[in-house]
Amino acid sequence: MASLAIVNYQNTNKMNLEDNAKRDGFSSKFGILCAAAGSAIGLGNIWRFPYVVGDNGGGAFLLVYLGFILLLGIPVMMSEFVIGRRGQKNAYGSFKKLSKGKFWPWIGIMGILAAFTILAFYSTIAGWTLEYVYLALTNSFKGLGSEEIGAIFETFHTSDFMPLLWQVVFMIMTAWIIIAGVKKGIEKYTKILMPFLFLLLLIILIRSLTLPDASKGLEFLFKPDFSKLTTKSFLEALGQAFFSLSIGMGTLITYGSYVDKKNNLGRISFEVSVADTLIAIMAGIAIFPAVFSFGMNPAEGPGLIFNVLPNIFQQMTGGYIFALMFFVLLTIAALTSSISILEVVVAYMVEELNLPRRRSTIIAALAATIVGVFCTLSFGALKNVEIFNKTIFDSLDFTASNILLPLGGLFIVVFTGWFLGLKNVKDELTNGGIIKVRLFIVFVFIIRFIAPVAIVIVFLNSIGVI
Ligand code: PFF
Fold this sequence. Notes:
Blueprint: H1 2-19, H2 29-40, H3 43-55, H4 59-87, H5 91-98, H6 105-137, H7 146-158, H8 161-180, H9 182-209, H10 214-222, H11 231-245, H12 251-256, H13 265-293, H14 304-314, H15 319-352, H16 357-377, E1 386-387, E2 390-391, H17 392-419, H18 422-429, H19 440-462
Antiparallel strand pairs: 1-2
Helix pairs in contact: 2-9, 2-13, 2-15, 3-11, 3-13, 4-5, 4-11, 4-13, 4-17, 4-18, 4-19, 5-6, 6-8, 6-15, 6-16, 6-17, 7-14, 8-9, 8-15, 8-16, 9-13, 9-15, 10-13, 11-17, 11-19, 14-15, 15-16, 17-19
The structure holds 4-fluoro-L-phenylalanine (PFF).
4-fluoro-L-phenylalanine binds next to helix 2, helix 3, helix 11 and helix 15.
């Protein structure tokens, strides 16, 4: 029986390969791991995580976040990989191939919409990061106190020209890597650079922990005060978990379609989630002790790391070089994420609309940049323009991260649990019966019942229905 299953699995494998003779793919297990971790680890961990934790009161929020990663994040990630590798196509194409009727491919389209939205505001922050590379390079923080460092940020991010220029530069870099393709582009860059970021973060974290009053920051991050949790916190924790793991919009369906049939999807999901969470917590430990040590406000919002980090570098021997290396690596971490976002759109345009890769990339990047301009200007010229009481930047971030991604995740688990066929799911997770998958029953129970119910409850809770 098992060997028949293996032969069948290998046959679908062969058919898929013939079907996709022209398709690019990752060349090794380490390559896919780095690319998926590269997508997950980015501004979401180092810029977004600390400020969202800060806004939501610290420790209790962290616990909810960790719960969501474990209970929802890993299963959604596994489901995305399963759909992608089974479907061997972009998010839209995979749903279309694996389902009947017209409904499911729309989930792919929703993912593409989320990709545009995220890319628009992601490139704003990535642009700020590039400015900080420049500031670090020119040693602009030297001898400044925390107020002057704050003033630099204030002047820069509310101005119109420079943030836009950097945003465009960042989008050109993203598009350039995407044009180079999967193996030569995505894999090559992520493989070398991710381990470096980890090391550097570790060094910064140690410095931050040895600042006076560091323990107050640790207490803020790790000591839960449940009275600080609001209904909004649950939605924000869910959104942050999905954003950080790059799930809910088909990024990992797309990457999954490039994964070799021999790789273990469950293990990759677990390893990527652990690495992503570790980096986020490390960023938290690097930021909060410094926030309290310099008497800053943890609920400062999107500017938090830009205000805090230069102060830490000021306190370090070799601060110049650490600052420079840090912002360069943060830019790279942002790039390995932004390429994964753009790839969702480009893979769709190439495979479904039959456009050349180069042209698709240019069109998609241009469109995202145009929306992105509004996000960037919403800190300056357009700061008084509000949609539902939020700036343009905040409303796009909120809609994509807290609504589109969890909604996408909901449909992804429902599709995998109820419509794909458990035999197919098992086949994909065990590589046709070759590898053992522990806890398959638990996984099925989560994607069929727990995850959908939990996501729906968080939604209903946040709009005040429960
Ligand atoms: N996970 C990325 C980060 O933490 O920076 C951002 C991201 C990438 C979100 C890809 C969504 C996505 F599909």
